[in-house]
Specification:
By secondary structure, the chain is of the alpha/beta class. The protein is built from 17 helices and 16 strands. Strand 8 (about 200-205), helix 9 (about 210-220) and strand 9 (about 225) form a beta-alpha-beta unit. The model is unreliable at about 505-519 (pLDDT under 50). It binds 3-methyl-2-oxobutanoic acid and zinc ion (ZN). Zinc ion binds near residues 169, 171, 202 and 204.
Amino acid sequence: MTKDRVLIFDTTLRDGEQSPGATMTHEEKLEIAELLDEMGVDIIEAGFPIASEGDFRAVSEIALRAKNATICGLARANYKDIDRCWEAVKGAKSPRIHTFIGTSPLHRAIPNLDMDQMAERIHDTVTHARNLCENVQWSPMDATRTEWDYLCRVVEIAIKAGATTINIPDTVGYTAPAESADLIKRLLKTVPGADDIIFATHCHNDLGMATANALAAVLGGARQIECTINGLGERAGNTALEEVVMALKVRGDIMPYYTGVDTTKIMNISRRVATVSGFPVQFNKAIVGKNAFAHESGIHQDGMLKNAETFEIMRPADVGLSGTSLPLGKHSGRAALRAKLKELGYELADNQLNDIFVRFKDLADRKKEVYDDDLIALIRQNDTVEDHLKLKHLRVVCGTEGPQTADLTLEIDGEDKSVHATGDGPVDSAFNAVKALFKHSARLQLYQVNAVTEGTDAQATVSVRLEEEGRIATGQSADTDTVVASVKAYINALNRLIVRREKTAPGEDVKGVSYKDVN
Ligand code: KIV
Ligand code: ZN
């Protein structure tokens, strides 16, 4: 059976990064782009260049560095956005401009354009983009709630104006699989010139159907899937890259399509995106969740030992997980640690390995067995941003009789400062101590604790999300002591917030960009 190629368009760095709290630093964006490029993603949507200086710089640098992937930037339907986008992507070996406008009745009302005025705007802006770049993608935002006749009309205009890819976004996650397939099929049949371009599908997960809708669109004739790692994205997220890629691989019998993605790189990039975005992956998430390949029940374990295919439709190795998970201990040496990290997808430079080795030994002294997940937590902790604040000393007193107290010493920009604080519980008193030493108005939006492995000596990973004047930063940390992990995560979030304060020029945050025209 011949299989059709489906292009994978990753928008983790644009639609994914737009989700509140998922903002990544410049270096983190470059790293994720490099991993996407290495794993065989066809198109990387690297950002929204007009949104901020930071976005422009990131898209430009990713464009220059990419070895294989097409690099795409997003632009609203106006010349200023499109010119800025072209400036950012033009250094790529293969650049693409992606321009969009909301075409449904609700979205047409925002720039206050009637149908004819919008049609003219689409013609002019796509033509302008195509005069700059040979590779132009156009999206009618909220396509799935746009009147059918009008959708056909504007898609035809965009094709005639030179768009080479037409993306059909289900912006609010409203469609369902049969409708998603039908929409693409009918567009292909109805719109003149539709056979000469590629149709893309861009689904959001508000009703939990993003993966199903994207695959259905492929069955209907779409040949590009827009998706993000771990399904990161606004609200309930976007179609998850790992889900569509593995579904096409495992069910090639009923979906005769293939992608260029090296699936063995999935776990590594999933972990990196979880770390840098501060959005942990839910345990039972398909493909990349901690439990996706775990078999706990007796019947399952018995079957698995006799024949793995009884309960596994994919091999863990297919997504980059090693089959065995033998723990390391305090007698394990540097070579064993290096080999184990390599197996987990982390190839470290010597100085990084030295640093992790010291912390591994420290952990192995406190914990009998160090599992894969413990090592991953250690690596994640090494993701330091510029440290204005460092934890030097923490002593907490807690028990049934209050008040709980914390003695804390922080190094703040090179100077040690100490305080004694009280609170409602050990974490509250420790956080109060941080606030007393480093005054800030950030609000705690999320505080989440997970045990990395089993047992009372397990490490706790803690995520803390802070919000200050619309800027959001997430910090993570791990330690066998939950309160220590909590304070480190809080400090990590504050450090990220400080970096963000320095980097965000007023009014330039991507969330502040409205979909109105700025022409
Ligand atoms: O969801 C959406 O409609 C988008 C567009 C900008 C393509 O992300
Ligand atoms: Zn989207």
